[in-house]
Amino acid sequence: MSSVPQTAAPGRRTPVDGRVLRTVCGNFATGVTVITSGRADGEGAGTTVNSFASVSLDPPLVLVCLHENSRLLPVVRDSGGFVVNLLARQQEPVAWAFAGRRTARLEEVPHTRTGGGLPVLQGALAHLECRLSAQYEGGDHTILLGEVVGLAAPAADVDPLIFYRGAMRGLGEPSVPGTA
Asked: Tell me, what DSSP letter sits at residue 160?
């Protein structure tokens, strides 16, 4: 990647090119999650997200960011909750299935339901069941704050799925030649 300075003159606000921002932020390795939601008696939905963070331990809060046009956003609002599924390395096909504009249907992917009826992907490294506690506008995304009401980490000896420089990989795996 070549260096592209994006510095504004003092006192002036210059828009940053979104493609450059994406490339620069791609240098921050993140875990890969699929956020799922839905009601026990209805169809669920999911989407791949790497904008996830732990916010607070007391009370237990996490945040995720969903695009304003995400099919999942109205499902989360309707159900009042969501699940953060932390993906294991071998779940890369699941991550790609829920990425992009045309995502997989939740019914096509093996999953179970929490006691509250929210979908949990089978084979996930861990999951956090959240009650929607707040929403904030954030540009073209909505920041969802969730109170963690249930969690599990059943996959003890499994590597996480990592997203770095536009590619998914496991811990210690080399960069794929030709990727940004």
From this structure: B
Q: Evaluate whether 71 touches 141 at the Cβ level (below 8 Å).
A: no
3-state secondary structure 49-108: ECCEEEEEECCEEEEEEEECCCCHHHHHHHHCEEEEEECEHHHHHHHHHCCCCCCCCHHH
Instruction: Give the separation between CA 41 and CA 30, rounded to whole angstroms.
Output: 33
What percent helix, strand, coil does the chain show, rounded to 5? 15, 40, 45
Structure tokens at 106: 């939740």
| DSSP 8-state secondary structure symbol assigned to residue 42 | S
Question: Of 19, 15, 39, 5, which Cα lies nearest the Cα of 118?
Answer: 39
Cβ atoms of residues 79 and 15 within 8 Å: no
pTM confidence score: 0.84
Tell me the pLDDT of the chain (180 aa) as tens digits: 445 555 555 666 668 888 888 788 777 778 899 999 997 777 789 999 989 999 999 999 999 999 998 889 999 999 999 999 999 999 999 999 999 777 778 888 899 999 889 999 999 999 999 999 999 999 999 999 999 999 999 867 889 998 888 877 788 777 665 444
